[in-house]
Amino acid sequence: GPCTECSCASGKQPDKDPSHTKKKENGDRLCVPKIFFGTRTHKQITQISRELKRTAYSCVPMTILSSRDYTCIHPVVSNSSNRNEMCVELLEGKHGKSCSYYHGVHKLSEHHALQPAPGLYQAWDIEDLVSLGRKLRACPYFAARELMVGADIVFCPYNYLLDPQIRDSMDIHLKDQVVILDEAHNIEDCARESVSYGVTESQLRAAREELDFMVNNNIRQKHHEPLRAVCCSLI
């Protein structure tokens, strides 16, 4: 069969991989759809990948998308309260430093343990990915994203599929793909959460103080007064 250690694994030129395209008679390529498997929690992904391991499909190319809370291994970022922001700042080199784990990402995404090969490869879960990432000093978060390019099945929490902002940032395109939602009765709650926003009383009080200042100093008064009224009524 075709060599599975192909360029698609590194996120480049997925169309070159013979196993992912079926030739139509007229020479057009027909893409094989990916399966996006959404679950309610990260814990359920672990259970499902364990089940996948027990089936005849244990060696299909796969990936698991999850947040930096589960997959960041940078000693400073992983212990911070806002991992996403710190990660982005590091990658942009804002403070003259970068992330060596990110620059080693190909060591992980191209590692033989994650490249489907009959007899050698087995379905993996987030813990497997993270411990291999620690060993190789390579970023599991971005490796999982790179592996999505060549994956036949992509596991992720529901909101990665339902929330348009996350879909966009994760580069998930669902057109013509297969979507499976596990325990779909939870979808309504999840959809509500993705368009809801939590705010604390102290944040409201701080906002009211700022709006007081604006109104008292005649700064766009007619815009700020109704906002202040909303803050007061909520408080």
Automatic annotation (TrEMBL):
<dbReference type="GO" id="GO:0006289">
    <property type="term" value="P:nucleotide-excision repair"/>
</dbReference>
<dbReference type="InterPro" id="IPR014013">
    <property type="entry name" value="Helic_SF1/SF2_ATP-bd_DinG/Rad3"/>
</dbReference>
<dbReference type="GO" id="GO:0005524">
    <property type="term" value="F:ATP binding"/>
</dbReference>
<dbReference type="GO" id="GO:0005634">
    <property type="term" value="C:nucleus"/>
</dbReference>
<feature type="domain" description="Helicase ATP-binding">
    <location>
        <begin position="1"/>
        <end position="231"/>
    </location>
</feature>
<protein>
    <submittedName>
        <fullName>FANCJ protein</fullName>
    </submittedName>
</protein>
<dbReference type="InterPro" id="IPR006554">
    <property type="entry name" value="Helicase-like_DEXD_c2"/>
</dbReference>
<keyword id="KW-0547">Nucleotide-binding</keyword>
<dbReference type="GO" id="GO:0003677">
    <property type="term" value="F:DNA binding"/>
</dbReference>
<dbReference type="GO" id="GO:1990918">
    <property type="term" value="P:double-strand break repair involved in meiotic recombination"/>
</dbReference>
<dbReference type="GO" id="GO:0016818">
    <property type="term" value="F:hydrolase activity, acting on acid anhydrides, in phosphorus-containing anhydrides"/>
</dbReference>
<feature type="region of interest" description="Disordered">
    <location>
        <begin position="1"/>
        <end position="26"/>
    </location>
</feature>
<dbReference type="InterPro" id="IPR027417">
    <property type="entry name" value="P-loop_NTPase"/>
</dbReference>
<keyword id="KW-0067">ATP-binding</keyword>
<dbReference type="InterPro" id="IPR010614">
    <property type="entry name" value="RAD3-like_helicase_DEAD"/>
</dbReference>
<keyword id="KW-0378">Hydrolase</keyword>
<dbReference type="Pfam" id="PF06733">
    <property type="entry name" value="DEAD_2"/>
</dbReference>
<feature type="compositionally biased region" description="Basic and acidic residues">
    <location>
        <begin position="13"/>
        <end position="26"/>
    </location>
</feature>
<dbReference type="InterPro" id="IPR045028">
    <property type="entry name" value="DinG/Rad3-like"/>
</dbReference>
<dbReference type="GO" id="GO:0003678">
    <property type="term" value="F:DNA helicase activity"/>
</dbReference>
